[in-house]
Amino acid sequence: MPAEVYALVDVDSMYASVERVFRPDLRSVPVVVLSNNDGCAVARSREAKALGVAMGQPWFQLKNNPRYRSVVALSSNFALYGDFSARMLAVTERHTPFIHPYSIDEQFLRLPADRAGAIAWRLREQIGQWLGLPVSIGIASTKTLAKVATKIAKDRREGVHDLTAASPKSVWQVLDELPVGEVWGIGSRLTARLAGHEVTSAGQLARLDPGWVRRAFTVVVERTVRELAGTPCLPVEQEPSPRRQLMHCRMLGRPVARQDEVADVACAFAQRVAARLRRYGRATNTVCVWLSTGGGFYAGPALSVQATQTLLAPTNAVVPLARAAARLARALWRPGHTFRRVGVMALDLVAEPGQQALWASPAADDAVAAAVDAITARFGRDAIGVGRAGFRQRPVWAMRQERLSPAYTTRWDQLPVVR
Ligand SMILES: [Mg+2]
């Protein structure tokens, strides 16, 4: 067994569960949370799912249907959900510094293999007791398998499911029973293509020859195949396209203490978020910034704070997002703390606004965003940006990459030279 394993901590029905913390009367009631302006269901409690409420179902359909009479609908409160997300991070930070927050309610942790199960149970108990949130935790040798383990923990209401404790035979049995479309990163289009090769279960996918998969599909699918078979190979940034939220959250290479530095980091991270939103054709209504001192593993006072800002109109333009993130970070900053982790999250995603949208971002913002995209596509991510992100010299807080090998194949200035 490897010395370290992955654990995925995932809140059960996050939005509905947060609402229930303050409304115990909603405990066993079907709850749905509605999108901005109460348009459609963006989150459903277990009971609401059992009633057949679909993700994205318009509220007017639910409201007038006697079948859903018992359903309680709430407007989304992203400031509240973001705050619980930051509090959850503060709890997990007591157990490990190796955390990759992946979405508002999911965090990947790296844990020592011999204690992972015990830590997971303790963590589940603490998040339940201190925050009032139910979580399911999956443990496995790779992130993709940890996703599978979490699904089992949820489906069987086990709380924690540890695939590293299972025999290889029973792991294969789990994979053989799992539809391929439920594997992390395998969307509906890939599911259809895989069905053409008679691959319908996760087990069949895991047994494919990785080399063939790379040629027939992509290197991303190849990684999924290897991960399912137990070899970790997902880089941190790898993720399926976002539907509900998108975040960029990192441990800094060097902690920052000054207010302007904290704002610089948030400003730079917001630009990463903006670029990815545009790549996926999404826009956000709400920006959330997290600051954390890194928890009990470091000297100095522990602090984990977040703030949320709702934007006037959904946008994916770089300037308004960077401005909002920097402003939030400046407001969150506290003297006497050194911050090690910063996160910028775009919540409440919608399809990119069209040209005629009533509240579309000002044309100037879009023009700037398009110019930034064009320049960074050609000259690299650090070629241009707002604030610190526009400087060529690496800021002090940037991830330590002194030992990074050159981009031999994607940057002209880093081509290997043959003499
Ligand atoms: Mg969840």
TrEMBL record:
UniProt domain UmuC: residue ranges: 6-187
Keyword list, A-Z: DNA damage, DNA repair, SOS mutagenesis, SOS response
Record GO terms (molecular function): damaged DNA binding; DNA-directed DNA polymerase activity
Signal peptide bounds: none
Protein family (similarity comment): Belongs to the DNA polymerase type-Y family.
Function: Poorly processive, error-prone DNA polymerase involved in untargeted mutagenesis. Copies undamaged DNA at stalled replication forks, which arise in vivo from mismatched or misaligned primer ends. These misaligned primers can be extended by PolIV. Exhibits no 3'-5' exonuclease (proofreading) activity. May be involved in translesional synthesis, in conjunction with the beta clamp from PolIII.
The name this protein goes by in its record: DNA polymerase V
The organism's taxonomic lineage, starting at the top: Bacteria, Bacillati, Actinomycetota, Actinomycetes, Pseudonocardiales
